[in-house]
Amino acid sequence: MEITGIVIAKNEANQITGVVESLFSVCERIIVVDSGSTDETCTLAEKAGAKVVSHAWEGFKGQRRFADGQAETDWILVLDADERLSDGLKAAILKLKEQSDSPVVHAYSFQRNLHFMGKCFRNSPLTCERKIRLYNRNYSKWDGGSVHEAVSVIGKIRKISQTIDHYPFESMEEARNKLRGYAFLKATDKHQRGKRTGFWSVALHIIFTFLKKYIWQCYFLKGTPGLILSWLETDYTAITYMKLYELNHSFDDKESKHEQ
């Protein structure tokens, strides 16, 4: 099994070397699809040994489909710039490369551990976040909306217990800005698909998100970082549904002022 590692990136100079090196521990070649970086992302990626392909941004799904088309191998391993393979996952993938699965497996899914403020947030066993990141492209394609794209597989998917390490935020400011940017994209996607919201929907989604993160997923065990991360993810939900409400109703505040 030969594997091509793929990363889509823009202005990821602080992260790109680390992710390319992580992928090279199990991949024969790495492709970085860059959508217009103005920092040293491309230079650093090439210095680390990756092939850089420039491609104008066409959304997460479109960008990933384009990236898959650049690979020369059937098997693809995808990481975001802020992700790394854990040592256990590296060993598991290397073992897969040495053996043939019977019955045939077309994709593998992994869990992610989120690292924030010096704490590792492992997924609760009841709410596991699994991602298909290693797949045979002949049986797979990227689907989904503007934000939460995912691999669809026609065939057998095998679960791997080892994890991807996720380091999404280098500062509170980055966390807030990144999550709010995703919230606007998600709200727009929901609106375009005909989703609607109102008072109770907004309120309940906000309350449920905080309870899910802080209690159900046991973020309270992480002390203050757990409380902060619960609040950040609740803010993401709040902005998503408040923006959706705004899009649903197309308010014209200037017109309402004239009516007074």
CATH superfamily of the largest domain: Spore Coat Polysaccharide Biosynthesis Protein SpsA, Chain A
| Tally of separate helices | 8
Count every beta strand, where a strand is a DSSP E run of 2 or more residues: 11
Number of domains: 2
CATH architecture of the largest domain: Alpha-Beta Complex
Give the termini separation: 70 Å
Mean pLDDT: 90
The rounded Rg comes to 20 Å
The helix-strand sequence is EHEHEHEEHEEEEEEHHHH
Assembly category: single chain
* Major sheet summary line: 9 strands, mixed
CATH class of the largest domain: Alpha Beta
* Uncertain runs: none
Class inferred from helices and paired strands = alpha/beta
Percent helix, as a range, is: 40-55%
**Shape by Cα distribution:** globular
- Which range does the strand content fall in? 15-25%
Might you state the CATH topology name of the largest domain?
Spore Coat Polysaccharide Biosynthesis Protein SpsA, Chain A
Key traits:
Spore Coat Polysaccharide Biosynthesis Protein SpsA, Chain A, alpha/beta, 2 domains, nine-stranded mixed beta sheet, about 260 residues, two-stranded antiparallel ribbon, about 25% strand, 8 helices
